[in-house]
Structure prediction request, 201 residues.
Amino acid sequence: MNDPAKTATTAEPLHPLLAERWSPRAFDPEHQLTERQTTALLEAARWAPSAGNSQPWRFAVAHRGTPAHAGVLDALDRGNQVWAHAAAALIVVAAQSVTADGATRPWAAYDTGQAVAHLSVQAQHDGLAVHQMGGFDRGRIATLLVGDGTLTPLTVVAVGRRVDAGRLDETLAARERATRQRLPITDLLLSVRPAPVPDRS
Ligand SMILES: Cc1cc2nc3c(=O)[nH]c(=O)nc-3n(C[C@H](O)[C@H](O)[C@H](O)COP(=O)(O)O)c2cc1C
Prediction:
């Protein structure tokens, strides 16, 4: 379901999967992810690049209606719970930021974000919508994850089928219909200082 009002305005045309992706809050509360859809999302994440091919990303998929989902939903900030409950799944995204022998992985969060970007594009391709959330109780989510204590929860990702904003209350519906904004490219560009001229005297 493409929404022209939400499509990115760009100086040069982008691939539609990128231009038309956005983060909705109105999800179909009847929709469930199939096993194949879930696998495709995880495959997209799995094949992201990472520093030294370290693949520090880890995912816990909680499908709506399961006890795991109830626990993850409960750990979200209230402002996220009010809409994220309807998504077909909540995926806890964590990074293994320390190796088994205790060495830190400086790029773990960077790599894991990149894996979620891959997942998001695959979701867009498969007619699914993704909304990432940083608003949750990290301590509670950490205790929900079965692991060896080296996991750093980074985000919870709502995935499902988008529906019309009219399903939301007026405040959320207004945010849902708002035009997407970005900084201009000129604000993103940095300058690199020229290399110092070697002193040959
Ligand atoms: C790391 C991260 C944390 C986010 N946390 C939240 C959140 O807690 N609640 C929320 O509604 N949206 C959250 N978002 C969604 C952003 O607000 C959204 O991506 C941004 O406004 C750009 O909108 P767009 O994705 O529709 O282009 C988060 C996104 C990212 C990447």
